[in-house]
Amino acid sequence: MKSNHDKGSVVFDHVIKNYGDVTAINDVSFRVEPGNLVTLLGPSGCGKTTTLRMIAGLEHASAGRILISGKDVTQLPATDRDVSMVFQSYALFPHMSVVQNVAYGLVASGVNKQEAHAKSEDALALVGLHGYGERLPSELSGGQQQRVAVARALVLEPEVLLLDEPLSNLDAKLRRQVREEIRELQQKLGLTAVYVTHDQEEAMAVSDRIIVMNKSIIAQEGSPKTLYEEPNSSFIADFIGDANLVDVEILDRANDRVNVDIAGLQKYLPAREFSLGPAKLAIRPDAIQLTASAGNQVGITGNIRHATYLGNQMQYDVECELGSLFVVDYQFKQGLIAGSDVQINFADRGLVLVKAN
Amino acid sequence: MKNSLVLWLLVGWVGYFILPWYLLEDGLFAFDWLFDGYPFDEDYSPAFIQVFSTDKAWLLPLVISLLLPLKALTLKKSDRAYASYLICSGSLGLAYLVIQGFAIGVSGWQFSLFANYFLDSEFNQYGMGYGALLYGLSMLMLLTTGLAARGVMKGDVFVTSSIGLIIAIVTVFVFYPVSQVLISAFQDNQGAFSSASFIDKFFDEKIWGLGCTTRSVSCGIAWNSLTLALLTATITTGLGLAFALIVTRTGFIWKKQLRLLTVLPIITPPFVIGLALILLFGRSGVVTEFFADLFGLEASRWLYGLPGVLFAQVLSFTPISFLVLIGVVEGVSPSMEEASQTLRADRWNTFKNVSLPLMRPGLANAFLLSFIESMADFGNPMVLGGNFEVLSTEIFFAIVGAQNDQGYAAVLAILLLAFTLSAFFAQRIWLGKKSYVTVSGKADSGAHMGLNPMLKMSCYSIALPWALLTLVIYGMIMFGGFVKSWGYDHSFTMQHYEDAFALNWTELGLVWQGAAWDSFWTTLSISAIAAPLTAAVGLLTAYLLVRQSFKWKSGFEFGTMLSFAIPGTVIGISYILAFNVPPLELTGTGVILIICFVFRNMPVGVRGGIAAMSQLDKSLDEASLTLGANSFSTFRNVILPLLRPAIIAALTYSFVRAITSVSAVIFLVSADHNMATSYIIGLVENGEFGIAIAYCSVLILVMLSVILAINLLVGERKLRRSNRLSNAIKKNSNAPLKLKEAE
Predict the structure, then answer these.
(1) Phi and psi at residue B466, in whole multiples of 5°?
(2) CB contacts, 8 Å: B633 with chain A
(3) What is the pLDDT of residue B111?
(4) Which of B192, B194, B22 is nearest to B112 (CA)?
(5) What's the complex ipTM?
(6) Mean per-residue pLDDT for B404-409?
(7) Does the beta carbon of A84 lie under 8 angstroms from any beta carbon of chain B?
(8) Which residues of B touch A (CB under 8 A)?
(9) Which of A168, B133, B245, B723 is deepest in the core (most CB within 10 A)?
(10) Contact call for B628 and A85, based on CB within 8 A
(11) Distance CA B606, CA B604 (A)
């Protein structure tokens, strides 16, 4: 007997997926805890959607095991799995009314029509679409269609809810609202959810945990905070929030801090696993402080190549000894225009040592 | 899931224990067998009784495959033995069914090899009937269910079974008959294998002779066919392009009417154009006589031969290439042309250097299509050929004529097949990856560039007279049936219609007195039965091709599309060779006509289905699957309803095609099942043009009204679509119009 503890969990155990000679997923293992919302994040072609489709049963693993609620489902087709999915395109059946769409899964699994429709109306009310049941999907706005897709997936009370870039067809303002609604609903119902996106901000906003994938493998897994503050590679540092990657020298290690030499400037940073010698440093764009050059100030000397005005912030490309740095500044200082010389300093937060890949 | 297994097993039992095993003279649905000695009469017995009452002991082993699966029913689906039992019984049953069918024929053992071991050649059997059909179907389903249980196609029974079914029927009704032609070509007239006689026949002077270049004898048939096909293809492609350019790139006011031209070839029986040409340009034709009176020219027979056939074929096939090229010309993205113009190229240079090269694959496609059509055309050469012999008609005369030389017919068939298949291969391989045309996807904004004046004038001057001529021809067909006797007596008469379609009220009720009623009703009913079958097979195949991926898929696709490239005459002769003897003895029945139509028209259904299904987002299927519906109910509840327009189109098209086809049909009709087209050919051969024309115009009207009625019934969806189409033309914008017809 499997324990209740496993209900809703998803486990990948050394899963490999090949398409002919191409390896889409290369020996991936992870576990999604029940009730968590876990995001698969990565650049396009990294294997995140394939991973999601393997949980759904739309693709089958070439090797390894997949477990849902502790049960081995590796060979089980999509039809027989207790998961449901919200598609990127929503995939609402255009020839059925909204309520027929939502009831589709219930009817297919043998619930009688009346009960199915009653339950569907409840699900529609849950996503705020009470009274829209008789419309056709084409008569709804994009955001409403998206909610129908969510209702259709939820009404089956699946052990795992899968979402494949559910917000990518919505405009930017709506995206923020809907992602909060989805998160709220997921937490209220205590659902396990696996969420695919390529948008790191979206991932940070909704997830309990994030699995970052790159080139068919897991690059790093952890909470949003861990990924941002303790990236294990320059790829993660760059992908989760921008980062300037520069070469530095670790001069000294004392207790859990190291003294780092950044082109002549010295900074104390958390040591983590780093030891003396050359290293890579990821510098967040907003951790760089610029001041207009005026005589003998402390800092690295640089020159502004481009300056871009974005309303709430300024963005600069600065050329200096470390290379070209991308800088974001929320304060508008006088004299920082393209072509002017600047002094560069660093804030205490936003500097992370990373492994050179 | 086991329910369907039980069902298929029951089907097998019914086939083996209850239904008559062998083919019935009067057909199963006459039901007279029920009261005529069933179940013990030798002709009507089911297989199980045949074993004892008529000593057909070789039918007994078949029962094993019906009993083994019972064991599987007691096992769990995940049990390996479950799959093994099913695969084992299914494949054994099928294999044994086929082997015994071929081994024992009407006169005992078919293979001398066996006969040496079993000297007793007392026993024999006739063609298999419905009992055997159900048994075979059941075995096939057991096999595929077993394979699915083994994990084939992710364990999906519906998909596995569908693939198995399509492979089985295409093998039996396309590959098997065609292979019979190949075999027959290598046999001498006594039936012994002989490659020498093949070489003799193949390199005959009559086929390859080049006499016409030096002396005044006619050239070889192969050269005739090739010349004709190349000429027809070149001219029709040029004309088609002119039409397409007018419709898409000019402000011509009757563009919509011009588009109607594309419907014509679908509803025109293939020899009708030839008939009308005779009425116009024949020795006693209207035009001929007019000029004879005017200039004192002597009426000649120029129409009978290459010029006439070419004339008729260009008239017949221009609309087809028009249809193909509309899609091509519209598919050239306007932004390409706009880009060219902003780079300071004028309209002529843009057309020459950008648009035309982009259309080149499409032009080649239209060319090859017309080439195949011309090669396969039977009606026009039949009516107008005279001494100009081409492959497709020569095959027919080799079979039905005085020579009655099956081997020679088979050799010609192989040759014809080689020509059309090369064109087919060229089309698929060479053009497959070369299309620049935007097939689908986002609508390109921007407008197509107009033609430059010179080009526009030349398009007008080529295409418009031709369109006019087409109109005159069709006018002749409608009109010609009311004239007493062409060339001699042009007074009005209803006589031809009376002869063909007279009805009489007598004390016995309504009497279908006209001579044509018989073939008319046969044609309609056989076409009506064939149409839904064609659509079903076509759409199911399209579903498998678009939505499923499996090993050998391209081979599967090739097999299902192959019959498109097989000329009707070749199909006809191959069906005669294959289905005249057991185990499948179908000649003379209506069934063989239906089967012939289904497989001749299936590629069109497949293409239509593929086109329509490619526009349905795959996530719809996946959504249905993840919501717990299996692939069968996904197909039924999601895909089929969304494919309604494609289904209707496939239904209409196959119905109409069945009515108008002649080349294959002419080999397969029988006294009981005569078809309209072959009846009309008979009339033409007897010189009864009046009735023939009258009959043709009735057929055309019937088909037109069927198409219109269906379009009305289908209702809004289609209407909306055509509105959009016309608006798009009006605005000369470029929402890519999806023309689903043959491309």
Answers:
(1) -65, -40
(2) 108
(3) 63
(4) B192
(5) 0.82
(6) 80
(7) yes
(8) 151, 154-156, 617, 619-620, 622-631, 633, 637-638, 641-642
(9) B245
(10) no
(11) 5
